[in-house]
Amino acid sequence: MTTSKKDTTSSRRRFLKAAAAGAAATVAAPSIASAQGATSMRFQSTWPAKDIFHEYALDYAKKVNDMTGGDLKIEVLPAGAVVPAFGLLEAVSKGTLDGGHGVLAYHYGKQNALALWGSGPGYAMDANMLLAWHKYGGGKELLAKLYNSIGANVVSFPYGPMPTQPLGWFKKPVTKADDLKGVKFRTVGISIDVFSGMGAAVNALPGGEIVAALDRGLLDAAEFNNATSDRVLGFPDVSKICMLQSYHQNAEQFEIMFNKDKYDALPAKIRAILDNAAEAAGQDMAWKAIDRYSKDYAEMQTKDNVKFYKTPDSVLQAQLDIYDQVVEKKSAENPLFKEIVASQLAFAKRATQWEQDTVVNRRMAYNHYFGPNAKKRT
Questions:
Q1: What residues contact 186, with CB distance under 8 A and at least 6 apart?
Q2: How do residues 319-375 score in pLDDT, each as one tens digit?
């Protein structure tokens, strides 16, 4: 088959005309984002604006805002801007807020099994391993089941593994478990039951209220989280004794939460960004924590005259014994609590045996390079 010169010219004209029309349509039709405008979400953290935890919330929002190219904009407000810190779950569920940043233990009063995400010894897991259980060991499905059980209209992303938290700030060093008897003490989550079982008079307060309560004598002692948060919140101004290492919150992580209706209404691409941004922000948070916490830990000793002590093993063992009693009681009362504990134990037995057998204890290397008998190096 042959094509005449006239046919070729005619076809070329039709192609150019169609192309020109397509180009005109492309110029004339705005993109979906610019036609509809960027979607905005109003978040609130459960932290004071000066706390590094609020900074972590801002870090997550920035990652989302950057990755969506402006199609979604998250604005983050500090604790109390819209609702009190412990009112976050209800506010997000009702849609008063589009989302928030906090910890699951803050919802302990709504459903005590939520505190199993980090408020306890983690069955020898650290926070990163507990997050591994959440993603690959059934925790994600159990958390959704928990929220459904209380009618919470939310989507939750646990993220950001926290290092082991100190036992807390005291008027004098804790040398034995009996030293906690009668002490007016601040903590949250299942730790309320653990410290109550150790004889303390527990008061659950949000982070921004703790130091003022210590200063006024409403508390004798308190725990919050880490060297940077504790320093910026003013703990060294009201106490010079901090007890390091504890099982009360050995494996905690943060939570990013969205109102489910608003989350489900977003395009699949944006939802995927929100999910993956949580994982990216979690790793970035872990790196930032190492840098910032270590600096403030050193400066509290050199500039704030804080004395740090390791919590005695007898106190740690008492925590484990009492935690087991608390778990037995809660499991008998709450089938979901029992189901989650069984899932965590099964995952932890496998994961912690692998870790204990595989990962070398770094204390020898630390002593080799930085201990009292370490060789001087230039």
A1: 168, 202, 203, 204, 205, 210, 213, 219, 221, 222, 223, 224
A2: 999 999 999 999 999 999 999 999 999 999 999 999 999 999 999 999 999 999 998
Question: Distance between CA atoms of 121 and 323, rounded to whole angstroms?
Answer: 8
Q: Quote the CA–CA distance of 235 and 354 in Å, as a whole number.
A: 38
Residue-wise pLDDT tens digits, 206-245: 988 999 999 999 999 999 999 999 999 999 999 999 999 9
Which domains are seen in the chain, by residue range? 37-162+252-290 (3.40.190.170), 168-247+306-354 (3.40.190.10)
Q: What is the pTM of this model?
A: 0.88
Q: Which of 347, 232, 344 is nearest to 297 (CA)?
A: 232
- In Å, how far are 37, 176, 220, 269, 330 from 114, measured between CA atoms? 37, 30, 27, 29, 12
Sheet holding 72-77, edge to edge: 72-77, 39-45, 99-102, 253-259, 154-161
